[in-house]
Amino acid sequence: MTEAAARRAPGTPCWVSLMVHSLTASQEFYGALFGWEFRPGPQQLGPYARALLNGKEVAGIGQLPPDRHLPVAWTPYLATDDVDATAETVRHCGGTVGVGPLDAGEAGRMAIGSDPAGAVFGVWQAAAHLGMAVTGVPGAVAWNELVTRETASVGKFYQAVFGYAEEAVVSADFDYLTLLLEEHPVASVHGVGNALPRDRGAYWITYFEVADVDEAVERVADLGGHVIKPPRDGSYGRVATVADPEGAQFALVTSRTD
Questions:
Q1: For a tag site, which of 18, 105, 190, 237 has the least CB within 10 Å?
Q2: What homologous superfamily does CATH list for 3-126?
């Protein structure tokens, strides 16, 4: 595949990254859970490692500065052809930009922003680093979902910034949007109303594919993580929500193949 062919359309989730207090301990946890190996990545924001699955890059883990008490959370990065212009649009549409835009070595240019409801996301303008080399296989990202109070206003924000089309689930008691690019689903927005934790606010959650959710959940617990929502059958497959030893939440999914 050529570099041009691999470059993702603007708005496509292209990378996920986690900033932690202990890089070594986090590498041990995720290495044991997903079979990841690690190699150094750009160090502009401090120590950073790229996770590889069978030699292909799937995610990044960086170390927070010791004086920064930021929430530890997986952050999806959305592709752009011009991160500076996207950052301006984020601000213009009621979001904020907390980091950047700045160059990440030869890899590309990035910014980290938040939507009007406070959910944090990254923006990535690829240079040498195009993002995830594989998705949807065990040990790699399967999906990204925004959990927020209600979908209507925040959906308009992402539509304005990234050009998504929206497909809503029409239901009196289920507030759910699928975000589409060229009719292809790329992410979802789930409005949970008052079930949204007050101490946390809106957030993106990353779904990682696993061969067997129930077995993976047991492994999370054995490795020092904890279970937020035990395995359950959903519309896309069997799903569980877990957290790593530092509290970063993520979902595990065994996708339906039918």
A1: 105
A2: 2,3-Dihydroxybiphenyl 1,2-Dioxygenase, domain 1 (3.10.180.10)
